[in-house]
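Continuing the batch. This is chain 6 of the set; chains 1 through 5 are on the previous pages. Same settings as before, nothing changed between runs. Recording input and output for traceability.
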Amino acid sequence: MNTDDTSHPHPYVGMWVTADGFIRQELRADGRYDEARGDRPSAYTGGYTVTGAHIDYVDDTGFTATGDVRDGVLHHEHLVLYRETAASPRPDRA
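Output for chain 6:
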C-alpha cells in the first residue's frame, strides 16, 4: 500500500464494523487505523500494511495482529467486520 498517495486510497480504506456495532475499525488512507470499542473511542490505534487481501497491524504499543479480507468481509484475528458505507449500513441495521 502506498501511504503517500491519499488521492487514490486502497479499496480497504474506510470504516469496518462488527455486526453488533461494538467494534468500529477505521482504516485510513495514510496507513493508520483507529479502533473504537463500545463507548471507548480510539481504544487501539496504529499502522497497517496491505499485501493482497492480507492486512498486518502494528498498534502504537507494538502489539501486532493480522487480518484477511475474504468475500468483502474483514476477518481480523477472532473478529468479523463488515464494510460500512452510506449505501450499505451494518448488517444488523439493514
